[in-house]
Design brief:
The protein is mainly alpha-helical. The chain has one domain. The chain has five helices and no strands. Helix 2 runs antiparallel to helix 5 and helix 3 runs antiparallel to helix 4. It is elongated and about 55 Å long. The chain starts with 18 loop residues before the first helix and ends with a helix.
Length: 193
């Protein structure tokens, strides 16, 4: 019995959904992020937490930051090493990003939910900038997920040089936006107390 062997590189993962279905999913996810963000802002206006609740919320907020932003930093470091031609390569970086996604979104959700009980200073322009940065983090996260799905269509042996230039530029821009938005929200959160 003959065993056929693949003579061409296989893809990392081939999404079974069409481009239109993935786009529709991204729109729904972006809508959910936006609605969740609006709900958190509205609830934060309406709640009057006790000091004990605020302290508990702050602990959850810091844990969410450690989990969510920590996972983002890990993904970015692995991706940059792969782009530089180090470690396990591009396919491993893409798989790592996929496995870190649950940690990133869990941390983001913990930040949003606990932020409701931290009594944001809504009269401050810095708070508006910080809240806008948080929304940008969420929407960019949806976009980054879509980019990762496109990257999974590359052969498993692909290197950074094999990424189509427009896709590579969008991925780099998404990473830069992510870092800028996370750091903006973090710094304002630290200084605006």
């Amino acid at each position: 019995m003959l065993c056929p062997m693949a003579t061409t590189a296989t893809t990392i993962q081939h999404p079974l959904r069409s481009s239109d279905e993935r786009f529709a999913d991204a729109l729904v996810q972006a809508g959910l992020v936006s609605v969740g963000w609006c709900a958190a802002v509205v609830l934060a206006h309406r709640v009057d937490p006790t000091t004990a609740v605020r302290h508990l919320a702050l602990g959850i907020h810091l844990a969410g930051l450690a989990v969510g932003f920590g996972a983002v930093l890990a993904v970015d470091v692995v991706a940059l090493r792969a782009l530089a031609g180090r470690r396990a390569g591009l396919s491993a970086a893409i798989r790592f990003a996929g496995s870190a996604e649950a940690w990133i979104w869990s941390g983001f959700a913990a930040l949003a939910l606990s932020g409701v009980f931290l009594r944001p200073h809504f009269g401050s322009a810095w708070t508006a900038v910080s809240l806008s940065a948080v929304l940008l983090v969420g929407l960019n996260g949806v976009y980054a997920r879509t980019l990762r799905q496109w990257l999974t269509l590359l052969p498993s042996t692909a290197t950074a040089a094999d990424i189509p230039r427009p896709l590579a530029l969008r991925a780099l821009a998404s990473g830069a936006i992510s870092q800028a938005a996370w750091w903006t929200a973090i710094v304002i959160g630290l200084l605006n107390r």
